[in-house]
Amino acid sequence: MTTTRHYPTKSFAPPGTLALGTLLAVVLANLLVVEAFFVSAGPGKNSLLTVAKFVGVHVALVMMVQLVLVARLPWLDRRIGMDRLTVWHRWTGFTLFWAVLVHATLVVVGYATLDDAPVPKTFLALAGVPASLFGMIAASIIVGTAAVSVRYARRRLSYETWHALHLLLYAAVAFGLVHQFLETTTFTSSGWATAYWSLLWIAVGVAFVGGRVVLPLWRNAYHRFRVAAVVPESDDVVSVHVTGRHLDRLPARPGQFFIWRFLGHGRWWQANPFSLSAAPDGRSLRLTAKAVGSASAALRHVPVGTRVFAEGPYGAFTTLHQVKDAMLLVAGGVGVTPVRALLEEATGPVVVLYRVRTEAEAALLTELEGLVRARGAQLHVLTGRTGAGSPPNNPFDPDQLVALVPDIRERDVYVCGPPAMTSAVLRSLRALRVPRRQVHAERFSLA
Ligand SMILES: Cc1cc2nc3c(=O)[nH]c(=O)nc-3n(C[C@H](O)[C@H](O)[C@H](O)COP(=O)(O)OP(=O)(O)OC[C@H]3O[C@@H](n4cnc5c(N)ncnc54)[C@H](O)[C@@H]3O)c2cc1C
């Protein structure tokens, strides 16, 4: 018979909930102010144009939320995680697309009704007015970006091509901003309204440029990262050790990742996210990558001494979110990298499940075994093909999971592996009623 042990619960408010609450409160507060300015500015020239104006000011607000979600602000990123923030960015992106379409259609039809003119003629007339033309250019870029972001198109484009097209959105923001300041009556209706709107855009701009440009540039100038060693772990897995100055001041935690760019190696334009595969020790960082495409395969040939531009640390797959003292770490394939780093930081009782097809494919296994021994933890290497044999080999089915870890509900569970495996584990954790705030997943994909 198995007995269930109980471990104390850490007693702080979940950081993710706090950050989400703060974000929502800021968005709602601004929404209320914007609507108050909209009402006080009075209606448009007809009812269609009033609705167009209403949608228009909300388009601008959604644009700001879009920028904040991808500003990579450390406080938000550590609490919510870049994966969730980019998923929200994707959904607000499609909201923006529909809102822009509705706004543009209502403006054209509204003016056509007002002038009693055909819609195409009104469209051409509006295109001759600079303020409207800027809006049209912004809208066209937003519509085009949404088109290349739907799953069908996204899967057919390389990450770099899609990303380069996506960057055009910054031009859309610039054109949209000029359009707003030339066209809107809501924010020119009073000095207060203009000041508020300008300050809001300045705050968003500072957050975005600070998080995306200033902080990474400053960190790289300060730390001067360089490749210290390249160590093959197997035929298709390689570890890259990176050193630099004052690494003890880099606020990186086990479980986090950086977006790495290896300069002067003929691939400076490629930047790829890789997790830290060892806890940062203040002297060096290590990433371990499986070769799946050109950038990850080329890491094996990066010369020692190569300058590295690293953006980060990012991610919420850390013990900041740990609720219980006990942990279950679940790794699948190369998803072992952040799990290996987290194991170094673990202080309470730990069980590690490592899912691989064969032990020979298990990257970093010897290190994992050493750490498990040193910490008195348990390690189960789960091999074999899923569904094979009788009974079928489904180690992450609820029954088999609970047989391996009987006190699973008393643990924080950290899962990182291929998408199908991660989803299977998350489904089983729900079936086993492991509280949601004890479940943490890193999917190795950003929307
Ligand atoms: C948070 C996070 C942590 C990761 N940690 C590791 C790790 O520790 N070890 C490991 O082996 N792999 C890790 N990955 C996966 C790794 O980033 C991809 O395998 C790698 O970027 C593939 O690039 P490629 O050019 O070799 O292959 P490609 O064939 O060009 O890319 C394969 C897929 O990888 C994704 N990808 C490529 N470039 C980027 C990018 N710049 N940003 C986001 N996604 C991109 C895209 O979905 C792309 O379709 C991680 C991914 C994420 C999102």
UniProtKB/TrEMBL annotation:
Cofactor(s) required for function per UniProt: FAD
Give TM regions. Answer: 12-39, 51-70, 91-112, 124-150, 162-182, 194-215
Compartments where located: Membrane
Q: How does it sit in the membrane?
A: Multi-pass membrane protein
* Residue ranges occupied by any FAD-binding FR-type domain in the UniProt entry: 220-320
**Where does the UniProt annotation place the signal sequence?**
none
Check the record and name the CDD domains matching this protein.
FNR_like_3
> Does the UniProt entry include the keyword Flavoprotein?
yes
Query: What is this protein's record name?
Result: Oxidoreductase
InterPro entries xrefs: FAD-bd_FR_type, Fe3_Rdtase_TM_dom, FNR_nucleotide-bd, MRET, OxRdtase_FAD/NAD-bd, Riboflavin_synthase-like_b-brl
One short Pfam family name for this protein? NAD_binding_1
- Entry keyword set: 2Fe-2S, FAD, Flavoprotein, Iron, Iron-sulfur, Membrane, Metal-binding, Oxidoreductase, Transmembrane, Transmembrane helix
| Organism, as annotated | Plantactinospora endophytica
Q: Which SUPFAM superfamilies match?
A: Ferredoxin reductase-like, C-terminal NADP-linked domain (SSF52343), Riboflavin synthase domain-like (SSF63380)
Q: Which domain of life is it from?
A: Bacteria
